[in-house]
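Entry 0007
Protein: Toll/interleukin-1 receptor domain-containing protein
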Amino acid sequence: MFAGFNLKIDLSEMLDKDEYYFLGKSIDEKNKKSIEEDLEAFIIDGVIDGSSLQEEWFPQIKADIFISHSHKDLRLTYCLVGWLYKSFKLKAFVDSNVWGFADNLLRKIDDKYCVNNSSESKFYSYEKRNYSTSHVHMMLSVALNKMIDKTECLFFLNTPESVSITDTVQNTTFSPWIYSELFTSEVIRKQELSRYRKGIMEKKAMFESAELIIRYNISTDHLIDLNKKDLIEWRMTRMITNNVEPLDQLDQLYYLKGIFTITN
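Output (structure tokens):
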């Protein structure tokens, strides 16, 4: 990752349009990989090959921008993906596009290894499911961290859905994935720009229980603030400079935010 941006503005009026939404959604659908491999293909001598399984179920996707967001903001995220592509031909990776694959993989593993055979009905073993979930979520976490490292920059969609701010608590999130992605973006090695320009330059519960809510403190101090004026000005440079390569448009954003100057 070369740079990260804290997109803390109301994008709904500017971006929440059907044109951008359907374009962004279609781009994301193309990124998704249809997984038809049977779990047995990854079992060798009774042991699951976790490395091969991770590569197959969570494949790396070629993208310029990693978008960290709340799943509740998925429509707005798709609009941002569509806007970025239509405006600059920039390709964005939507982290939630692997969620379905994680659930599918976990279900396959649980159905094979975690069913409590002592029960006449189909119940899962609590201990076995904890073990399987830890492995699948670790695979997902590693895959997401690799994508953050692989993409040139990160946009954090900072909205009331992703960040909780109250009179007593500031900058927290209820999403473990947002917590992980922002922490990764803070501590991950910052790469030289040239690295990215090479060659181009569960089952329903049987009883009711209390709602599980976990809060994480997050920091966005390492991200560069991005506002509506910045996006409009960035878009204007695209309108003025026709026939400019998509990654050159990211350079314009870096110039705009002072990450580097024209003389660099």
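Curator remark: Confidence is low (pLDDT under 50) at residues 202-207. Residues 126-150 form the longest helix (25 residues).
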